[in-house]
Purple acid phosphatase N-terminal domain-containing protein
Amino acid sequence: MKNRGIFTIGVVLTVLMIFVGVFVFKASGSNDSVSVEGCNPYNVEIKKGEKENSVEITWKSKTRCSAYILYGTEMKNLNLVAIDLEGDFRGKNHKVVINSLLSSKTYFFSIVSGGTTYGKDGLPISFSISSL
């Protein structure tokens, strides 16, 4: 009986995670955009910025959307904000530059586009300056 209850809870949690955690997210500059609509980010690219210890994050959306990045050094504490300056805060091509990062730290970020938060598989995306 106990195992049946645990199995049922597991199935319910799995179904819930599928509905909550589904994000269309194409990384690394892919030109493919499978089922991307509205403000969902796609063609996300993370690269070193022009300034030392900076990073440039770019992405696209199918419709004009306001967008920004939430980021931080802890996955569950994205307490910093970087504003999309590419499309006058409301466009289809988005670009955020984050300066003064520490090369020894790992950073996490989520894209907020059209009021919805996106990541990879429902979690923030991680990067470090040294890995770019």
Notes: The two ends are 51 Å apart (CA to CA). The chain has one domain: 23-131.
